[in-house]
TrEMBL record:
This is Complex I intermediate-associated protein CIA30. Pfam families: CIA30 (PF08547). Residues 240-259 are annotated as: Disordered. Belongs to the CIA30 family. One of its GO terms (biological process) is mitochondrial electron transport, NADH to ubiquinone. One of its GO terms (cellular component) is mitochondrion. GO terms for molecular function: unfolded protein binding. It comes from Rickenella mellea. The keyword Mitochondrion applies. The keyword Lipid metabolism does not apply.
Amino acid sequence: MATSRWSTFLKRLNRSTDVLKDQTSRVLRMDGANSPSRVPIPLLNFRSPEDVQNLALGCDSDIGGTSSAKLDFVSDSNAPNGVGYGRLSGHMRLGVQSGLEGKLRSGYAGFRSKSRRTLFGELTDDISNHEFLALRLKVGGHPRTRNSYFVNLQTDAPVSGELWQHRLYFQRDDNSWENLFIPFSAFVLTSFGELTSGHTSIDGEQIRWVGISLLGGNAGVEGPFELGMDSIRAVNREDVTESLKPDPSAGTQWMRGPL
């Protein structure tokens, strides 16, 4: 127990040192006096076992559902980085454990980046000068699960259950890598799973975490699923390498209905 507490303290101390270095370099560079940087911001990489260990996994089985999910690192010289990639896989089921029928809603699995606490508070990302979320992914599993993925962002909001969300639309069905670009302006705000009104855009100055979820319960989708992940970044239009297609749903299943 003492070893675990010491390890946690050292991680926070290292992050705190990084924060001080970053703030000092910003002062020396006189950030704010020049034009805002448009350099892509890495939000999540999945290029080593350590990257995958920094993710938090969740599944309906945690509360009585029957789905399964796991995160692992796959060594693969054919991956975009030449080393390997992160993988979310499992089996989506809509049933619940005995005695919980009618008491909970099953059918979800996903992950998010872990909170990055320092001695000065939580470390966040500022994407306010960027227009798009760029994801390098490949989707496998049963075809009926492939259109049920969503990407989630949480800002430093007063309500912990509020998430900015957008459905992921994959164009390929051969389990090959593809780039997805989503305008931050297309994300919609949800609160504890319900669409909210009165919010038009993300306050991108403090992004706490990024994640991806598979929501089978919303569309009655079951089956094996697999998602390969290389990177998630905040970018601008000059970094978009694919032609942008019209968003068929304006964001989420609340706008579109079940597939």
